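Repro case for the chain-ordering regression, as requested:
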Amino acid sequence: GQNIDQPTEMTATEGAIVQINCTYQTSGFNGLFWYQQHAGEAPTFLSYNVLDGLEEKGRFSSFLSRSKGYSYLLLKELQMKDSASYLCAVRDSNYQLIWGAGTKLIIKP
Amino acid sequence: SQTIHQWPATLVQPVGSPLSLECTVEGTSNPNLYWYRQAAGRGLQLLFYSVGIGQISSEVPQNLSASRPQDRQFILSSKKLLLSDSGFYLCAWSDSVGGSEKLFFGSGTQLSVL
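-- result from build under test --
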C-alpha cells in the first residue's frame, strides 16, 4: 500500500527553527508537496520538490531525498502565526496525490 | 485573479437527509475540480474530480455523488446522509495537469450529521 508518515504534533519556541519530517512509500514518484493549514481553514500551497535537494523560499525551505523516500520542511525564525498543521503529499506514478495526516505545529512564546 | 467560493461554511444535518454543497471558481476557464474530505487525524481523501463539464471521476465508492453542470461549478450531493459522512469537505481547483500541478482550496464546509 501507499503510505505517508509525518509526526502528529510538534512544539517549538517563537524565533527558533523547526524541522518537520515526512517519509513516504508510494507506487512511483512525481513530486512532493507541502501545504500549510490553519485550524478550520483551507490548506495553502507552500512548496514543491521533484528533484533531490533543498528548495528555499523565504523563512521556509523544503528538502527531498528520493532514494530515501524522505522530505523535510524547515521553518526558520518561527512566528506565532506559523502555528498550523503542515501537510505532506506525494504524487504517485498515476499522478494521484497521496496525503499524510499532517503535523500540528504549536508555537510557544 | 482566481478565486474559489465554497458554501456553506458549516452544516448540521440529520441522518437520512439530503446534501448539497456548492463550489464555484472565478477567473479561470476549464479548471480541474476536486472534492476532498478531511477526517481528524487522517490525510485528505479524494472523493471526486472533474476535468471538464459532465466529466466526473469517483475515487471512493459511497453514498455521495458529484456533478459539474457548468465549467466552473462543482456540486457534491447525497440523497441520504449517513453518520459517517460527517467531516470537513474541501473543494479545490487546479489549472494544469502534471507533476507540479498545485491545488487551490476553498474555505471548506464542516458537516455534522446527527
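Ordering looks correct now. The first strand of chain A starts at residue 3 and ends at 5.
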